[in-house]
């Protein structure tokens, strides 16, 4: 879990930024090797464990595009109308719209077919959009929450909940045979990497604003 400072709730821990380099590496390794026997065997093993799990499958609902859009719009208008926090508002747009564009662009470039089941989705499989956007919108909410409180336990609880839900959203795609495990792992990794890029932008802008108005 990523925890902000108790004193000033402004920045993530240093390791959280470093972890983004790890997740970027994971994404690239998978992107260039998912067709190798080792990764294919990995996909098959994970699918054999999770396939058909109805409980895990339920979590795909909180990763559905409609649900994610509704949550994002609510946050957008809250920051705009109630808080007048335009930097945070742009952070939300950059995170979600940018993440969606990146996901769709990579899918179109890679063109990986989905698992072979009846009534399968027609879009491409790599990386998993539910997994990537689940990380982005849940971690974005956790990050914004950490900006408005210094209570360590609450911050930790929110980040843990976000991480668990994002994990189950991704696993639900394997349980329902909509994605391969490598799609999901790549989606989580890419989502976290893009989130940290957006967080870095936001914190640099915030630091500049604070200097100019101090």
Could you explain the architecture of this structure?
- The chain is elongated.
- The longest helix is centred in the C-terminal third of the chain and has 32 residues, at 181-212.
- The two termini are 32 Å apart.
- The chain is mainly alpha-helical and 214 residues long.
- Helix content is 73%, strand content 0%.
- The protein has 8 helices and no strands.
Give the arrangement of secondary structure elements.
Blueprint: H1 14-33, H2 37-50, H3 54-57, H4 65-83, H5 86-110, H6 129-146, H7 152-175, H8 181-212
Structural shape: elongated
C-alpha end-to-end distance: 32 Å
Question: Mean pLDDT, nearest integer?
Answer: 89
Number of strands: 0
List keywords for this structure.
214 residues; single chain; 0% strand; mainly alpha; disordered N terminus; 73% helix
Brief summary of the model shown:
The chain is mostly helical.
């Amino acid at each position: 879990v990523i925890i902000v400072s108790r004193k000033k709730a402004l920045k993530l821990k240093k390791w959280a930024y470093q972890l983004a380099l790890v997740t970027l590496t994971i994404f690239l390794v998978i992107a260039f090797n998912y067709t190798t026997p080792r990764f294919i065997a990995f996909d098959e093993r994970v699918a054999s464990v999770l396939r058909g799990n109805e409980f895990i499958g339920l979590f795909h609902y909180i990763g559905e595009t409609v649900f994610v859009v509704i949550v994002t719009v609510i946050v957008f208008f809250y920051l705009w109308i109630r808080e007048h926090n335009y930097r945070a508002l742009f952070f939300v747009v950059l995170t979600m719209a940018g993440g969606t564009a990146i996901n769709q662009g990579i899918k179109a470039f890679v063109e990986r077919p989905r698992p072979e089941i009846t009534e399968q989705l027609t879009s491409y499989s790599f990386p998993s959009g539910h997994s990537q956007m689940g990380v982005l919108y849940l971690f974005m909410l956790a990050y914004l929450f950490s900006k408005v409180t210094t209570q360590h336990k609450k911050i930790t609880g929110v980040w843990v909940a976000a991480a668990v839900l994002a994990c189950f959203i991704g696993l639900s795609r394997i349980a329902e045979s909509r994605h391969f495990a490598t799609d999901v792992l790549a989606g989580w990794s890419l989502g976290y990497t893009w989130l940290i890029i957006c967080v870095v932008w936001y914190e640099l802008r915030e630091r500049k604003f604070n200097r100019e108005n101090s």
